[in-house]
Design a protein that fits this description.
334 residues, alpha/beta, Rossmann fold, Helicase, Ruva Protein, domain 3, 5-stranded parallel beta sheet, two-stranded antiparallel ribbon, 15% strand, globular
Amino acid sequence: MMEQTNTVDISKINEKIERESAFIDLLMMEMNKVIVGQKYMVERLLIGLLGRGHILLEGVPGLAKTLAINTLSKAVQGSFSRIQFTPDLLPADVVGTLIYNIKENDFSIKKGPIFANFVLADEINRAPAKVQSALLEAMQEKQVTIGDETFVLDKPFLVMATQNPVEQEGTYPLPEAQVDRFMLKTVIDYPKLDEEQLIIRANLKGSFETVNPVVTTEQILRAQEAVKEVYMDEKIERYILDIIFATRYPEKYNLESLKPLIGFGASPRGSINLANAAKCYAFIKRRGYVVPEDVRAVVHDVLRHRIGITYEAEAENISSVDIVNKIVNEIEVP
């Protein structure tokens, strides 16, 4: 009898998610007018948006990282701002500052570029720690304090930070505790040959299609609520926890060889974000329940930046992604 109520519930949830996620295809189509290929990156952006998270994108310059978030903001009728991080940037340049008004003999508040729905933090590792922490506080608390006034940021609020893995000079690498604030860290690769051919043609013609707003911010906020209702079975929860705990105690999961390679495992924020991202992925695929494939689809983006590797791992040229692969291949799928 119990099983019967579950199935009824799941079919109801499925119908609701099917309705609420109808805009996903529209949004994808609109973004594909401008973004050629890079389906992986676009999907990850949507996961960040639906999961109320933020994304750290890593890739060489020229892979349409800026263009992607700009296009998303146009398609979602949201406000967009871009902050170019440089070594001389100050926290006030990001969050805003108090300006003295001579006429009124008082201070007025000038809000910074952080007050937008979509914020692109370009080359985040170029600014000093003070600026990085100002941005990360806004990301975590979803509010900003200027002087003695606190302002709640607009919803939806998505920060996409980019970093260039090639240049190391004049950069301030993000500390682990700050990188952990990002729901996903996505590494972007070059486009395929035929995709790049289309990119060349579009650029030489100079004929980019205009992106129309196809989704309202209200629809996004509704979708964020609907994502919470996506059904996750207890077996899937255990599967997520097994993956996370294997990063902390690999010897308990028949992975003794990983013990000397892992400096520290994923924090509880890792398990929360893995569950959340799996629900968002199911929502994007227009399903009302999470399957193990959803977890496997997002596990690399969620855990890539949450596992500390030891010098031994570096010496053997083993990355956190290799460790995640070994864990995912070893742990039994429900």
